[in-house]
Amino acid sequence: MSLSRPKYYIGQMSGTSLDGVDTVLMQISKSGIQTLASHHLDFSTDFKQTLLELCNSSDDEIHRSALAANELAELYAQSIHDMLSHCHIKAEDITAIGAHGQTIRHMPPYYTTQILNAALLVERTGICTVNDFRSRDMAASGQGAPLVPAFHKVLFPNTQDIIVLNIGGMANISVLSKENGTNGYDTGPGNVLMDAWYSRHLNGNYDEDGNWARCGQVIPQLLSDLLLEPYFSEPAPKSTGRELFQLDFLLEYEPEDYTPEDVQATLLQLTVQSICKEVLKFPDTQQVVVCGGGAYNGELMRVLTATLESIDVVTSDELGFDAQNVEALAFAWLAEQCIEGLPGNEPAVTGAKGKRVLGAIYPA
Description:
alpha/beta; Nucleotidyltransferase, domain 5; globular; 13 helices; 2 domains; six-stranded mixed beta sheet; 35% helix
């Protein structure tokens, strides 16, 4: 690929937290990757509930998921138009959009489903769109996730052994080793259980800065019971989602028997302990770089940093990349890889038989 002239790609991500659409404008040139602009568009309460319901079996879900895919395309397009209106890049200057869509089911090795009417997104923006990034990896016997480690390797060229920790609805690690290459997998819940418990008891979608969790005390027996979930002991490659970690999972442990803020503190500790258990399996790690919404949870970061006391813990913001936008950037990069006919997966991460070009292209 020639990088004599900068190329522009848009990346879009709506994650497991169901908070909205993250959109970034990426420039790629000889000097590397640069974020030129970004935009966040919140989901309405009703649309968030629609997506949440589609994560479980329900009546007429084929029809409802098709309508949701259309609405999601309209929101993705709106976010792009809003972002481009504030910068000096025109739609015709964009090589492609990398649009992940919204995961409503992730059931490896059988299937994975991310809804988005990509054809409608092309019509609304006039920009070539790359979509459906996970299916080809799964067809090659991979998990289809996580896909971001391949991008993290490019974004954070390591002069030391580092782990990039993404804490979204779920948490995943990218292990970047000088000697052993790239590895990674989902560690378990990130914000998803904390968000669900917060919404059940208080008026809001998430525990801002971990303030509610900070008021509680960890419940040792509940934490111990939660950590017995078999997923935490499964070997990699592995990935997970709301099919396992959602409110119903928590309710099986009868959390209503405890003070709500104590349960929240315990759920925060569950996220930290399940992450740190995996990080500490790589003893040469010198730095953990945190991205995703969890990077802005002060209490979560405090407990994580204290638990990994011998490792330097920083946010991606400190390295020049907004923690909220790293995953959207990954899908801009994956679109670039697809357009150029280059692989986008890491077989050691997903378990695929080999490197594959990921994505389906919808020309403008």
